[in-house]
Amino acid sequence: MHKLFGAVAALALLSAAAPAFAISANADAKANVIVPITVTKTADLVFGNILSGPAGNVVVDAAGGRTGSATLLAGVTPTAAHFNVTADTLGGSLYTLSYSSTALTHTNNTDTMALAISPSVTAAANKSGNLSIDIGGTLTVGSNQVAGVYTGSVTVSAIYN
Q1: Beta 49-50 vs 38-43: how paired, if at all?
Q2: Would you list the DSSP string of 117-133?
Q3: Cα R_g (the chain), whole angstroms
Q4: Which among 59, 154, 144, 61 is positioned nearest to 103, based on CA atoms?
Q5: Helix or strand or coil: residue 160?
Q6: What is the tens place of the pLDDT at every residue in 51-86?
Q7: Are 119 and 137 in contact (CB under 8 A)?
Q8: Does residue 18 form part of some domain?
Q9: Which of 19, 35, 67, 100 has its CA 20 to 30 A from that of 6?
Q10: How far apart are CA 45 and CA 108, in angstroms?
Q11: Is pTM beyond 0.90 here?
């Protein structure tokens, strides 16, 4: 029994006498809080006045110039849609743009004209993440298109990658 007690006591002394070395390291914790992206429309896509008659198309380019095979009339100035995108590039954040449009629909909710858009990024994103976008389009006018006001939409969406 004494031998067992002596062995336990010796083991206790050895473990108490052995120096304990604690080694540690620290890591920083970081986060970048990014401001939300904003997309602001500053101009609508306007095709102007078009005469009902033979089928054709109307093209408004990104600079607002208008051409087409439909009969184009004066009276309303055509314009390209214009959007400003504001984003944050803190921490190297990038974003992706997407574009969509709907057909133009007459106020009678029955007659439509197809719209295909042509986005043009007119200035590369600067260091603050700001971008300017002009959007033209091609409007398909049917034969003897019903006269009246037609409306649709052009959408620019932006999302951080």
Answers
A1: unpaired
A2: EEEEEEE---TT--EEE
A3: 34
A4: 154
A5: strand
A6: 999 999 999 999 999 999 999 999 999 999 999 988
A7: no
A8: no
A9: 19
A10: 21
A11: no
